[in-house]
Amino acid sequence: MGAALVATAMTYATPSAAETQAASSAPIETTETPAPLFTAQDLLLSGPAGPIGATLLLPSATRAALLLLPGSGPIDRNGNAPGATAPNHYALLAEALATQGVATLRADKRGIGQSGGDANAVTLDAYGADAAVLAGELRDRSALPCIWLAGHSEGALVALRAASDLGAVCGVILLAGPGRRPGEVLRSQISANPANAALIPDANLMIDRLSLGQTVPLKEIPEALRGLFPPAVQDYLINLFSQDPIALAAQVDLPALVIQGEADIQLSARDAEALTTALPQGVMALFPTMTHVLKDAADDSRAAGLDTYTNPDLPLAAGLADFMAAFIVTGGEP
Question: What does the angle CA 231 – CA 180 – CA 178 come to, to the nearest 5 degrees?
């Protein structure tokens, strides 16, 4: 889908003595340092639950602006989880878009990094309230009449909900977003790993109870599942599992780009197809070797896929930023 990036090699020749002498007598020419393609500014905004730490990238010639809404878990503005995964994919994506004239704003989630609040006491409405603050800031600083929303994974749900509430939204981009209720996605993820075979009945029961709005006391949670369904996050999971992405997508009549990697072990092209069908103006783009963290896997092995989650030096999937930027600056033309 994306175009390959071609690097041009430059060769350097050693000058002769005569050339060196001639050069020493020649007038000295000075060149101005080229202006940066974009400027970066760290912000600390006032949010509903406390400060929101964010980073704004503003191109020297801004053509559009995009608010990046993060995925699930304790994720910072760069896409990294302290002490866990560190793909740095949000920082890479923001920088790549900024070089093509797309201003970006990305933030630490509640209770993470420089953002205040309780990371466990959240709902999608709470994330939407934070997104409203960020969207207003981005509109003001970019001086544009509307902004784009890009939601990754869980952030795709936030983007779909916010698109109808915020106003002045140009369009949405859904990056590896779920096309099923999140409880069903989690059920599939657990059952897909053969090592989880013994846990599947108990895990399914937990998902069923939470989907019905029931909290489960710690003593009733099998020990092997307590890290996945701790009481501290059950209210959040109840809220998350109640979301219907297809119903949300059907209400967003804006230019919409659905992007999915076919090397993603968490979601699949079926999710992207369902979202695209539901969106009144949906366009789908599949990237054959891209994983859930927006990077290309070296091969189709599970190890290669997991390496993209922990290696910050791996680049973004080839052509991803180019495709997104083209869609954005043309107002949603594929």
Answer: 85
Angle at 262 between CA 277 and CA 302, to 5 degrees: 145
Cα separation, 152 vs 173, in Å, equals 8
The structural domains of the chain, with segments of one domain joined by +, span: 38-181+244-329, 188-237
Whether the Cβ atoms of residue 61 and residue 52 lie closer than 8 Å to each other: no
Average pLDDT, the chain: 90
Question: pLDDT by residue (tens digit) across 33-92?
Answer: 666 799 999 999 999 999 999 999 999 999 999 999 999 999 999 999 987 889 999 999
Question: If DSSP states are collapsed to H, E and C, what string results for the chain?
Answer: CCCCCCCCCCCCCCCCHHHHHHHHHCCCCCCCCCCCCEEEEEEEEEECCEEEEEEEEEECCCCEEEEEECCCCCCCCCCCCCCCCCCCHHHHHHHHHHCCCEEEEEECCCCCCCCCCCCCCCCHHHHHHHHHHHHHHHHHHHCCCCEEEEEECHHHHHHHHHHHHHCCEEEEEEECCCCCCHHHHHHHHHHHCHHHHHHHHHHHHHHHHHHCCCCCCHHHCCHHHCCCCCHHHHHHHHHHHCCCHHHHHHCCCCCEEEEEECCCCCCCHHHHHHHHHHCCCEEEEEECCECCCCCECCCCCHHHHHHHHHCCCCCCCCCHHHHHHHHHHCCCCC
CATH of domain 38-181+244-329: 3.40.50.1820
